[in-house]
From TrEMBL:
Highest taxon above the source species: Bacteria
Native species: Echinimonas agarilytica
A Pfam family reported for this protein in Swiss-Prot or TrEMBL: TANGO2
UniProt name for this protein: NRDE family protein
InterPro entries, per the entry: TANGO2
Length: 253
């Protein structure tokens, strides 16, 4: 269970991610900067699976993983999906992600939605959704929000989409909207708490909120280590951005 939204602007983009988990799951290790095979990466870590659900590398490429409950669970032993983000975190082009997912044995993974942001040309940004439904891999150019939920999925998706559209309609054009996006992610549905962006169920809740900004020069990641409606943001983690190799600035997928 998770919800993500984003806003791509001229030369920069912002991602907002609520992680919803069962209350029995261990607390994640908040985001820090790591060196992975010579690549600087900012990511939180999940002590249960040993992987992560969200990472950004020093090229400014972002990788976010959500469950896809509408898919079919493959039979046999499954590998934690958190390993997918860690495997792809050095990539800087969609074609690299696609090649890896095509070559990996996805039948060892439960269904997932894998959202990646990559540079497009010298200054632009692009987003793709790689979706594994337990049978086949599909690629989409998604629109926000993306939600995953184990219960009442259609109702939840519809309610969160409606709340997103209402927020966008209420914004004056050309205004920096990161604060509005952050407020949406800590909002509660007026009548049905289980449809909220900030989720509170008897067995599960929104356990963290991640806010990322990538611009031409730098990467900034802030994190709420608890339900965003009642937790203040931690000090943000930042790093300078490097340009990826020229030949990676493509739209091969
Ligand atoms: Zn809340």
């Amino acid at each position: 269970m998770c919800t993500m939204t984003w806003n791509i602007e001229q030369g920069s983009y912002h991602v907002f991610f609520n992680r919803d988990e069962f209350k029995t799951r261990s607390k994640a290790i908040p985001p820090k900067q790591y060196s992975v095979d010579g690549m600087q990466v900012i990511m939180p870590l999940d002590p249960d699976g040993g992987g992560t659900w969200f990472a950004v590398n020093h090229f400014g490429c972002t990788f976010a993983l959500l469950n896809y409950y509408q898919g079919n669970l493959p039979k046999g032993d499954l590998v934690s999906r958190g390993s997918i983000v860690k495997h792809c975190v050095g990539f800087s082009a969609f074609c690299e992600v696609y090649r890896y997912l095509q070559s990996a044995n996805l039948h060892h993974f439960a269904p997932f939605s894998f959202v990646c942001f990559m540079p497009e040309g010298q200054k632009g940004w692009s987003v793709r959704l790689f979706q594994w439904d337990g049978v086949a891999l599909s690629i989409y150019t998604p629109r926000p929000p993306i939600s995953s939920c184990a219960f009442d999925i259609e109702q939840v998706i519809e309610a969160r989409k409606l709340a997103f559209e209402q927020m966008i309609r209420a914004l004056p054009e050309g205004v920096n909207t990161s604060l509005d996006f952050a407020q949406l992610h800590q909002s509660h549905h007026a009548h049905a708490p289980t449809l909220s962006y900030c989720l509170h169920r008897h067995d599960s809740e929104t356990v963290s909120f991640t806010q990322l900004t990538v611009d031409h020069l730098a990467i900034h990641l802030s994190y709420c280590d608890g339900p965003p409606c009642q937790t203040t943001m931690s000090e943000r983690v930042s790093m300078m951005r490097s340009m990826p190799p020229e030949h990676h600035l493509d739209r091969a997928v």
